[in-house]
Automatic annotation (TrEMBL):
<dbReference type="GO" id="GO:0098796">
    <property type="term" value="C:membrane protein complex"/>
</dbReference>
<protein>
    <submittedName>
        <fullName>Putative ABC transport system ATP-binding protein</fullName>
    </submittedName>
</protein>
<dbReference type="InterPro" id="IPR017871">
    <property type="entry name" value="ABC_transporter-like_CS"/>
</dbReference>
<dbReference type="GO" id="GO:0016887">
    <property type="term" value="F:ATP hydrolysis activity"/>
</dbReference>
<keyword id="KW-0067">ATP-binding</keyword>
<keyword id="KW-0547">Nucleotide-binding</keyword>
<feature type="domain" description="ABC transporter">
    <location>
        <begin position="7"/>
        <end position="228"/>
    </location>
</feature>
<comment type="similarity">
    <text>Belongs to the ABC transporter superfamily. Macrolide exporter (TC 3.A.1.122) family.</text>
</comment>
<dbReference type="InterPro" id="IPR015854">
    <property type="entry name" value="ABC_transpr_LolD-like"/>
</dbReference>
<dbReference type="GO" id="GO:0005524">
    <property type="term" value="F:ATP binding"/>
</dbReference>
<dbReference type="GO" id="GO:0005886">
    <property type="term" value="C:plasma membrane"/>
</dbReference>
<dbReference type="InterPro" id="IPR017911">
    <property type="entry name" value="MacB-like_ATP-bd"/>
</dbReference>
<dbReference type="Pfam" id="PF00005">
    <property type="entry name" value="ABC_tran"/>
</dbReference>
<dbReference type="GO" id="GO:0022857">
    <property type="term" value="F:transmembrane transporter activity"/>
</dbReference>
<dbReference type="InterPro" id="IPR003439">
    <property type="entry name" value="ABC_transporter-like_ATP-bd"/>
</dbReference>
<dbReference type="InterPro" id="IPR003593">
    <property type="entry name" value="AAA+_ATPase"/>
</dbReference>
<dbReference type="InterPro" id="IPR027417">
    <property type="entry name" value="P-loop_NTPase"/>
</dbReference>
Length: 228
């Protein structure tokens, strides 16, 4: 029995207006992502990868085409609906960890829950996530007292704190040495395999892409499939 894909993208276009010039960042992208997949999005600089993530994450509206996440159509959402999508359905991890320097690791993670109006203490299932990420004993530290790899793990914990339907990771190992990169990639793999987290990850690194089940290529705003 085949389930409806958690992400369905059809004929998606995004055109930016830069002065008098139209920049066609996405030119008809089609993609289905099954629940529980881990997909690497690869492609040269300027091919449209970040634009695709910005549309999927509700940060920017598409120009045409459709995007369904968990059955909801993003292309016709109001700004308020897109904000809700960002809060409830999508988790983001970036190359820069974007942690608040004055807050402890614990509060950096919990802030998502405060904003979301949810519980202010970690429940048992989230303690499991923290254990998986290997940061239980780092919760009282501020970001400057953590290594880059540890900061990225805190950022990942924050991204999955609300149990998002999809996790979007944009070059999550771009700032890390090879040892920390491997640790972060193994954690993403664990989140995927043990908790069934659906993950899309942009990367320039073929070794990072090899952690995914499937690799898709962006080129000039279009997508071509590719095997890992
Ligand atoms: N806000 C914007 N206004 C105008 N043009 C933009 C904007 N954002 C992106 N672009 C253009 O859209 C195209 C796709 O950019 P995008 O950032 O999506 O590519 P990318 O594949 O993520 O690149 P990189 O790997 O360098 O991050 C590029 O030509 C870029 O210059």
């Amino acid at each position: 029995m085949s389930e409806t894909p958690i992400i369905q993208i059809r004929d998606l276009t995004k055109t930016y207006r830069a002065g008098d010039v139209d920049v066609h960042a996405l030119r008809g992208v089609n993609l289905d992502v099954a629940k529980g997949e881990f997909i690497a999005v690869v492609g040269s600089s300027g091919s449209g990868k970040s634009t695709l993530f910005n549309v999927l994450g509700g940060l920017t509206p598409p120009t045409s085409g459709s995007v369904h996440i968990g059955g909801k159509d993003l292309s016709h959402m109001t700004n308020a609906e897109r904000t809700k999508l960002r809060k409830d359905t999508v988790g983001f991890v970036f190359q820069k960890y974007n942690l608040l320097p004055t807050l402890t690791a614990e509060d950096n993670i919990k802030i998502v829950k405060y904003i979301g109006g949810h519980a202010t203490s970690f429940d048992d299932s989230f303690e499991e996530v923290l254990r998986l990420l290997g940061i239980v004993d780092r919760m009282k530290h501020k970001p400057r007292a953590l290594s880059g790899g540890q900061q990225q793990r805190v950022a990942i914990a924050r991204a999955v704190a609300n149990q998002p339907a999809i996790l979007l990771a944009d070059e999550p190992t771009g700032n890390l040495d090879s040892q920390n990169s491997a640790a972060v990639l193994n954690l993403l793999k664990d989140l995927n395999e043990r908790l069934g987290q659906t993950i899309l990850m942009i990367t320039h690194d073929p070794e990072a892409a090899a952690y995914a089940h499937r690799r898709v290529h962006m080129r000039d705003g279009q997508m071509t499939p590719g095997a890992v």
